[in-house]
Specification:
The structure holds 2 protein chains of 2 kinds. Chain A is an all-alpha fold. Chain A contains 14 helices and 2 strands. Chain A has 2 domains: 36 residues, no CATH class; 195 residues, MetI-like fold (Orthogonal Bundle), CATH 1.10.3720.10. Chain A has a two-stranded antiparallel ribbon with strand order 1-2. The two termini of chain A are 41 Å apart. The N and C termini of chain B lie far apart (79 Å). Classes of the chains: A mainly alpha, B alpha/beta.
Chain lengths: 304, 410
Amino acid sequence: MSFWERNQLKIAPFLFLAPAILIFLVYVIYPIFDSIWVSFHEWNGMDKSGTRANGKPNWEFVGFKNYITLFTDDDEFYVSLFNNVRWLIFSLLAVPIGLALALFVNQRILGIRYIKSLFYFPFVINAVVIGVIFTWFYNPKYGALSLVLGFFGLDPIPMLADESLATYGIIIASFFPGIAYTMILYITGLTGVSREMIEAGRIDGASGFTMLWHIVLPQLRPATLIAIVVTLVGALRAFDLIAVMTAGGPWGSSEVLAYKMYQEALFNFRMGYGAAIATILFLIMDIYIAWFLYRLFKNERSEK
Amino acid sequence: MGGKMKKLLTLVILFTSTIASAGTLVVNSNQSGEPSKSAFDAYVAAFSAAHPEVTVVVNEFEHEAYKTAIRNFLTAEAPDVAIWFAGNRMKFFVDQNLFQDVSDVWADADLNDSMASSKGSLTVDGKQYGVPWGYYQWGVYYRKDLFDQLGLNVPRDWAEFKWVCAMLKKNGITPITIGTKFLWTAGGWFDYLNLRINGYQFHMDLTAGKVSYEDPRLDAVFDHWRELIDPGYFLEDHASFSWQDAQAPQINGEAAMYLIGNFYVPTFEAAGIGDQMDFFQFPTIYKGVGVAEDAPTDTMHIPSGAKNVEDAKKFLAFMSNKEAATNWAKMGGMLSPNKYADKPTNRFSIMGAKMLAAADDIAQFWDRDANPDMAGAAMEGFQEFMVKPDREDKIRARLEKERARIHGAL
């Protein structure tokens, strides 16, 4: 038997995986390390052998300088970091609201299917379109929000032009698709809830909130986990709505790390500095992903 | 035989004929959206008619996306001609050796004579690095009908300007509309206040990074600006609005004045208030300061990596063709830099041409004169100042820190 015939079964899987692994290495793994390398340099994105306006080379090794500047000399970095935290905390509201909607539409009423699809609709719309719609909605002069406020005799609120409100304004817009998504997760989860358990609970006298808390929710745990994870990752990746609705403004007050990275690298032409922000964002996400994988493996082991 | 063979034969002939001629000319353009697109297409058509041996291929980019894309394509895959902007925006690429010296085009096509007024903004160290194709004025576009109703005259100096604002405000009209969401409109206000108070040379030194943002000469600029901010003469919540959003109050007759470029004209004419609108030059603040205006110039350049330099030079030199030059500028709502071009016919362009011809100096506009990384940070500061004027010291300290990082300590 030739070598190939003897080892065919062992080698074949790797051959099939090879294209995917190669692409993963080139487009995911390599750029991660390259970004970290770039973050130790000052680079304006131009030809590395040229010189800048201040006479220094376009590509200059500066060690940890970018990180030091970020942490000690850039107020906007802390604004962005704090905004990321706000996104993480407040976007989680989409999970209970999604659950409530799922319970609401999970009834046998005539036409509920159409209502379900209406609630799901925002998730299908492109984020840019949602951003534009909400920008119009918030428009303090002609927007629907100011009309409603005006009806109650209140002054218009410039949601997106107020430094303390802008981030909340965008988070609320992100609920629009976010709630739809968690709702769908829970609707699927609810179909798996055991009828026997609910019957048994009913015999033992559970109803309403007790029923939900002690019998339905524990069975929805997988759905809850996915809903929370997806929402949190979405919050860390928040970018498109910010770009469309405020462009990070007013004066940078609604920036998050991902947006600041884009702004610094592509508009202020500080590639190294942008890469440093990307590295920090990567580390933050990494801690979270490591924790998540650890929980997942632990759960699987205990189930076995 | 027959059909197929004939087709093949024509293909072969076509193929060999393009090889025989100088070939294709690749032009990267940011002239997206109307009317810029058809104006540029007309220029390409006129050029192709005059030079049938050259096949022009136009890569069209969206106007904003072009600003980041150009950095990539100039180094990675350079076209033969790239459209760009005069002043510091051009100088940045000249310093990076990415644009070619085209002084010979200026000499051969006699542009030194016909384009004399724009020559300075395209010259670095005595050499020209591009050819201008259009420019436009900035100034105050105002509702003449509202002024007439209240018996107001066009303000010529700062006191009159403030008086006009006060009277409009008193009568429930927003004196000045502006949308600062995308920042650059605030840059226009800073430009004019600084040009009128400290003059052209100081303004150029500031944009070149040679003056501190904490320099006491800038105090007067921010003080004058505050005289409009504190009484609420600017449109409320302007940080919510883009420059297009800010047109609505003026078109609805709720706001009277708008400091903006001449590209605004087609919009308000289409909105049906062309007859109610008029234009005036930004008022004098200090007597004795030379009159400088913002008039951004749009240009064409040959990247250093261009493959078909010979035809690229023909394409640039074609701007000396008076008819083609006139059409491109006119159809795009701009003024032609070619002094032999036909005089503009639009009322606002005529006023602009007259005003610019009389100006002592021409600036390009804040985000074209200043270094690109500084321009963005500064305009963000201007926007913040227009909403929170009490933070002036903090904002100026922040801008000075940025300036020192980019241009080095003074």
